[in-house]
Write a structure and sequence with these properties.
The structure holds 2 protein chains of 2 kinds. Chain A is α/β, with parallel strands linked by helices. Chain A is built from 7 helices and 5 strands; from the N terminus they run βαβααααβαβαβ. In chain A, 39% of the residues lie in helices and 14% in strands. The chains are: A alpha/beta, B alpha+beta. Chains A and B meet through helix 1 and helix 5 of A and helix 1 and helix 2 of B.
């Protein structure tokens, strides 16, 4: 299929399922969709659970030393403090991951960033955005079709590659 | 100054990337060709993003400017 005179095409692979990495594919896909491009996101490995009906993406500060830890409440000066708690120490504290996840969600909400759910809903709503779940990952992790939103399709590497072959922009995230 | 009548105004205050262009695109889809949409944003990133959105979609960006720390855009639907 030639894309000579058609709209521009974006092909994304979403391979990471943490809250922070859930954002880039959905931000780029919804932006490209708004720009009237054709878009497909291939959700594979840890990116596949981002298509689950119930999104439960979390963020872990472990192994993520560049992650700023800021408080979403309190006076301005307090909010600007970057809490430099050693990674190894905090990753051993029970509940630290859910605290970090809660802080990130609150900070994003306060700043006006859409939630991952909202961005995903936008993508589902756009008829020029396709969300593709990886069949092989489903089989490996034991997911069923009904675990995922209706607005996605299921496919494999060839499905994605056929689409990506005619794309103008391809990104692995 | 371009001559136009604003048909609708879209409030995107408080929203960050990519919501201003996503909401603008959604609203433009509901309008008729030739209609003019005004969009108000607080996101400084909307200035380059709305220009890029206009370049890519072909919808005409009639105005894009900062007014009292608000960013105001006027767009005409072309197709």
């Amino acid at each position: 299929m030639s894309k000579e005179n058609g709209p521009r095409r974006l092909a994304l692979i979403s391979s990471k399922g943490t809250l922070d990495w859930a954002y880039p594919p959905f931000i780029l896909a919804s932006a490209a969709g708004a720009m009237e491009w054709e878009v497909a996101i291939f959700h594979t490995f840890y990116g596949l659970p981002l298509l689950k009906k119930e999104l439960d993406a979390a963020v872990s500060p472990m192994g993520n030393p560049a992650m700023p830890m800021k408080m979403p409440f309190g006076p301005d000066g307090f909010q600007k403090i970057n809490w430099n708690i050693p990674n190894l120490l905090m990753s051993n504290v029970p509940g630290f991951e859910s605290m970090a996840t809660g802080l990130m969600k609150q900070t994003f909400k306060k700043k006006g960033v859409a939630t991952v759910e909202e961005l995903r809903d936008m993508c589902v709503e756009m008829d020029n955005v396709r969300l593709i779940g990886c069949q092989m990952t489903m089989d490996v992790f034991g997911f069923k079709r009904e675990d995922f939103i209706d607005g996605c399709e299921i496919g494999g590497a060839a499905t994605f590659l056929e689409y990506a072959a005619d794309s103008d922009v391809s990104l692995f995230i | 100054m371009a001559e136009y009548d604003i048909k609708e105004t879209l409030d995107c205050k408080g929203m960050l990337c990519p919501m201003p262009i996503v909401k603008t695109s959604k609203k433009i889809k509901e309008m008729e060709i030739g209609d003019v949409l005004e969009m108000i944003s607080t996101d400084p990133g909307a200035i380059p993003d709305m220009q890029a959105w206009s370049n890519q979609t072909g919808h005409e960006l009639l105005e894009a400017k900062e007014e009292e720390s608000l960013y105001r855009f006027v767009v005409r639907k072309t197709h």
